[in-house]
UniProtKB/TrEMBL annotation:
Organism of derivation: Bremerella cremea
Domain called TadE-like: residue spans: 28-70
The protein, known as: Pilus assembly protein
Taxonomic lineage: Bacteria, Pseudomonadati, Planctomycetota, Planctomycetia, Pirellulales
InterPro entries on file: TadE-like_dom
Pfam families tied to this protein: TadE
Keywords per UniProt: Membrane, Transmembrane, Transmembrane helix
Transmembrane segments annotated in the record for this chain: 30-49
Length: 155
């Protein structure tokens, strides 16, 4: 019986020795693998940050255009009240309203008759609202949100 155990252990020792020698020759392999994977991983992280910010700002300007349109369709509304509503919403959402373009059509909104459509368009270049110093993927993109509502006036 002791003889069988000795023969079973011998190949294990030889295999262990060969694996140990193979592991000793791999010094620096992790560094090389990291050097290959790290730039791709960093680009992926920056891309997720950039696209996440784009989706967030798009939602914010959509809501801002909606608020501007709500104000523009009321009786006695002016273009400046609609623009002020948009800028107020953008300021509370921490989007720099200095780089935002707001267009109210028709201008002034009271030119739209009873039940007429009033459109508020908000646009901002993504490079002005990006969290990254120079956006890699969406730098030349302009985010646009448009809301149209019917004018609420008394006949």
């Amino acid at each position: 019986m002791g003889d069988i155990n000795a023969t079973l252990r011998a190949p294990d020792l030889r295999l262990d020795k060969a694996c140990r020698l193979f592991r000793l020759n791999r010094s620096g392999a992790a560094v090389v693998e990291f050097a290959i994977v790290a730039p791709l991983f960093i680009l992926l992280i920056f891309g997720m940050i950039e696209y996440g910010r784009m989706v967030m700002v798009q939602q914010v300007i959509t809501n801002a255009s909606r608020e501007g349109a709500r104000r523009a369709v009321l009786d006695g509304a002016t273009t400046s009240t609609a623009v002020a509503a948009v800028n107020e919403f953008l300021d509370t959402a921490a989007v720099n309203s200095g780089s935002v373009e707001v267009i109210v059509s028709p201008d002034p909104p009271e030119n739209a008759g009873y039940g007429g459509a009033v459109t508020v368009t908000v646009s901002v270049p993504f490079s002005k609202v990006s969290w990254l110093p120079s956006p890699m993927y969406l730098g030349s993109t302009t985010l646009v949100a448009k809301t149209t509502m019917r004018r609420e006036t008394v006949k």
